[in-house]
Design goal:
The complex is a heterodimer of chains A (292) and B (237).
Chain A lengths: L1 H30 L6 H18 L4 H28 L4 H22 L7 H4 L1 H4 L1 E3 L5 E3 H23 L1 H11 L1 H6 L4 H26 L7 H15 L4 H21 L4 H14 L14
Antiparallel strand pairs in A: 1-2
Chain B lengths: L1 E12 L2 E12 L3 E6 L5 H9 L6 E6 L2 E2 L5 H7 L1 E4 L11 H7 L11 H7 L16 H13 L5 E5 L7 H16 L4 E4 L3 H7 L2 E6 L2 E7 L5 H9 L7
Helix pairs in contact in B: 3-5, 5-6
Classes of the chains: A mainly alpha (292), B alpha/beta (237).
Chain lengths: 292, 237
C-alpha cells in the first residue's frame, strides 16, 4: 500500500511540475525560446509573495494576487526590451540571453534577501499541514491536491484561451508562421509579449506552491528549471496536457525513487527523463500540441 | 481616385536588386495584372507593398498616406491585404480559424465567415478541417478568404494559380470575377498571360526588376506582351 501512496503523492507533486513546465512550453511553443531563467522567475515570484507577507499578515494565496500583475508586467517588459532583440539574431542568442538573465535574477535575490533558505509553509496555516486519510497508509495532503487542482485549472484555462479567443487564435497562428500572421494583421511582437507575460505569471503560481510545499533560496531556480524542462520533454514539447502528464510521470518517478532510498528521488526522475529521450517516440504526446 | 501609388521603388535581396525604380499606380475599382518571367521582381514588389519586404528606396502611398515605413500588420488595418505566394495558411488551424485570425473590427467591415463561405462554396463542408489537410485549390480559396476577412481596400494576389490543377484555377478565377465585378481593387501577379488579359483591366509587365510595358488589357496584343516579357532578344522565342 505504500506504493499506492507513493504514486498518489507523485501525481500531486506532478501538478506543481506541470505548473512550472507550462510557461516553459508556452514560450517554446510560441517563440521557440528556451527560457533558462524560467526557474529563477518562479523563485522571484516566491520572493515577491514573501515581501507581500512581510507587510500584510495574509494567506500566501491572497498574497499571490498582487504579485500576478507585477509578474505579467515583468514578462511583457522582458519580451519587449530584451527577448525581441535577441530573437532577431537567431536561436542561440535567446538561450544566452535567458542564461544571463538567470544569473542576474539569482544575484539580485542574493543581494536583497541574503542566502537564507526560506519557506512559506508556516504562513499558509492549516492548508500546508492538513491531509485526508484514505486508509492507514494512504493520505492526500491538502496543499498537494490544491496544487494539482490549480495546475489543471491553469492548463485548462490556457487551453480555452488558445482555442476559443481571438487573442489565442492569433497566438497559435503566430506560433506557426509569424511573418504570415503579420500579413493578416496580427502584431507578432505584441503576441510574443503577451505569451511571455502569461508564462512569467504562471511561473509565479508555481513559485507559490514551491514555497509552501518546500523551501527556496536565491539559487533554487536552476533545479526547478530542470524539473520543468523534464516535465515538458517527457510530455512531448509544445503540448499543454502533455506537460501535465509529463509532470505527473516525473513526480511519480521521484516519489517512488525516494521510497527506495530518499537520495534516489531526483535521480529516478532524471532516469525516466533519459529513458523517454532515448525512446523512439521521444515524449508521451507527439509534437503536435495545443500551442502548435 | 488612386488607391495605390508606388514611386521609384528599389528593393534588394542582399546584393541582388530585385526591384529597380518601379513606379506603379492602381486606381479605385481597378484590376491590374502584374506579369513577367520568374525572377522579374513581381513577388518582391508585392511583398514590399504589403510591408513584408523593406524597400531600399522609393515610396509607397496608399489612399494618400505614405506607408513606406508602416509595419505589415498596420497596413492590414489601413486596408492592404496580400494573398502570399504559396498560400501560407496556418497549417494546424482549421479553415474557420484561419479566416477568424484575420477578422478585424473596423467600421463598415462587411466580410465575415458566412460571406466568405458564400463566395467560396467549396469551403462550406471544410470549415472544421485543418488547413494542412486541404487540397491546393481549397487552400487557395481559404487564403483568399482569409485576406478578404481583413476587409481590404486593395487586394494583392500573388500567383493564385501556382501549383493548382486547371479545374481548381477555374474555380478560383470564377470567384475572383465576382470580386472584380463587385468593384474590389486588385493587383494580381499571374504567370498565365491569357488569364491576366481576360481578367484584368490593365497589365503591367516587369523584366529584371523594371516595368517594361504598361497598358489597358484590351489594347495590348499577346505579341507585345511576349516581347516585353522576355526582353528584346526573346521576341522570337
Amino acid at each position: 500500500m505504500t506504493w499506492v501512496n507513493d504514486v498518489i503523492q507523485g501525481i500531486l507533486l506532478g501538478g506543481v511540475y506541470a505548473l512550472l513546465g507550462c510557461g516553459l512550453a508556452l514560450m517554446f511553443g510560441v517563440m521557440r525560446i528556451i527560457n533558462l531563467a524560467h526557474g529563477d522567475l518562479a523563485v522571484l515570484g516566491a520572493y515577491f509573495i514573501m515581501v507581500v507577507l512581510d507587510h500584510w499578515n495574509v494567506s500566501p494565496f491572497l498574497a499571490l494576487l498582487p504579485v500576478l500583475p507585477v509578474m505579467l508586467l515583468i514578462g511583457y517588459g522582458l519580451q519587449v526590451t530584451m527577448l525581441d532583440r535577441s530573437l532577431r539574431s537567431g536561436v542561440l542568442i535567446p538561450l544566452l540571453t535567458t542564461f544571463g538573465l538567470s544569473i542576474v535574477i539569482q544575484n539580485l535575490l542574493l543581494e536583497k534577501f541574503s542566502p537564507d533558505v526560506r519557506s512559506l509553509g508556516g504562513n499558509a496555516g492549516a492548508i500546508a499541514t492538513s491531509s485526508w486519510r484514505i486508509s492507514n497508509s494512504i493520505s492526500i495532503s491538502a496543499i498537494g491536491a490544491l496544487g494539482l487542482g490549480v495546475a489543471i485549472a491553469v492548463l485548462g484555462g490556457l487551453q480555452l484561451f488558445l482555442s476559443r479567443t481571438q487573442a489565442g487564435r492569433q497566438m497559435r497562428a503566430t506560433a506557426q508562421d509569424p511573418d504570415t500572421a503579420e500579413l493578416v494583421g496580427v502584431n507578432a511582437r505584441a503576441v510574443y509579449a503577451r505569451a511571455t507575460a502569461i508564462a512569467v505569471a504562471i511561473a509565479a503560481i508555481a513559485g507559490l506552491f514551491l514555497a509552501i510545499r518546500s523551501t527556496f533560496f536565491p539559487f533554487a531556480g536552476p533545479t526547478q528549471l530542470i524539473f520543468a524542462f523534464e516535465a515538458v520533454v517527457i510530455g512531448g514539447m509544445g503540448s499543454l496536457w502533455g506537460t501535465l502528464a509529463g509532470g505527473i510521470v516525473l513526480g511519480v518517478a521521484q516519489t517512488i525513487g525516494a521510497q527506495i532510498d530518499p537520495s534516489y528521488a531526483v535521480l529516478a526522475g532524471h532516469l525516466v527523463f533519459l529513458a523517454v529521450l532515448a525512446s523512439p517516440r521521444g515524449g508521451l504526446f507527439s509534437l503536435r500540441g495545443a500551442t502548435q | 481616385m488612386t488607391v495605390l501609388a508606388v514611386k521609384n521603388l528599389d528593393a534588394r535581396h542582399g546584393l541582388l536588386q530585385a526591384v529597380r525604380e518601379v513606379s506603379l499606380d492602381v486606381e479605385q475599382g481597378e484590376t491590374v495584372a502584374l506579369v513577367g518571367a520568374n525572377g522579374a521582381g513581381k513577388t518582391t514588389l508585392m511583398r514590399a507593398i504589403a510591408g513584408a519586404h523593406k524597400p531600399a528606396a522609393g515610396t509607397i502611398t496608399f489612399n494618400g498616406y505614405d506607408v513606406t515605413r508602416v509595419p505589415a500588420h498596420k497596413r492590414v488595418d489601413l486596408g492592404i491585404a496580400l494573398v502570399p505566394e504559396g498560400r501560407k495558411l496556418f497549417p494546424q488551424l482549421t479553415v474557420e480559424e484561419n479566416l477568424l485570425v484575420a477578422k478585424r473590427s473596423r467600421n463598415g467591415a462587411d466580410w465575415d465567415v458566412a460571406r466568405v463561405l458564400e463566395a467560396f462554396p467549396l469551403l462550406k463542408p471544410l470549415r472544421g478541417k485543418r488547413a494542412a489537410t486541404l487540397s491546393g485549390g481549397e487552400q487557395q480559396a481559404t487564403a483568399i478568404g482569409r485576406a478578404l476577412m481583413t476587409n481590404p481596400r486593395l487586394l494583392l494576389l500573388d500567383e493564385v494559380s501556382l501549383g493548382l490543377a486547371p479545374v481548381a484555377v477555374d474555380d478560383v478565377y470564377r470567384s475572383l470575377a465576382t470580386l472584380i465585378e463587385a468593384g474590389t481593387t486588385i493587383l494580381l501577379v499571374e504567370q498565365d498571360l491569357r488569364r491576366a488579359l481576360d481578367n484584368a483591366h490593365r497589365v503591367v509587365c516587369m523584366l529584371e526588376g523594371r516595368v517594361v510595358l504598361e497598358g489597358a488589357a484590351k489594347d495590348l496584343t499577346r505579341e507585345q506582351i511576349t516581347e516585353a516579357y522576355f526582353g528584346l532578344r526573346g521576341a522570337g522565342a
